[in-house]
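Re: the 128-residue chain
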Amino acid sequence: MSTNHTHQNKSRAWTMLLLAGAFEIGYALSVAGSHAFTRLNWSIAAGVFFLLTLYALSVALKTIDVGIGYAAWAGMGSVGATVFGSVLLDQPLPLVRALWLAVIIAGVVWLKLADSAQLQAARGQAPA
């Protein structure tokens, strides 16, 4: 398999992982809005987002290592749900929590960088 084709596969996988993260945020917010699945529209939205996030995550994990992919997905979901929960659901976001969210964001960025073909090539590893 060519390096360019591998790079395209990794890019598509990370795009799917970003999409899975967005769907995870939608799922978390829908679950909160469903009030323990007692509101039909929010409950249906939660079910749809749940299926979408699992599908997109499963596609991404065909290429990205499960440890890296799952950690990035969970981080995106956590940060997104907290930020959007603060904006849309009027949930508190104190400075200390915001700082720890920044740590999660930095970790997700480093996971992406650690999975990059350039970094693996610099280490002498063959990109997956």
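Residues 82 and 97 are 9 Å apart (CA to CA).
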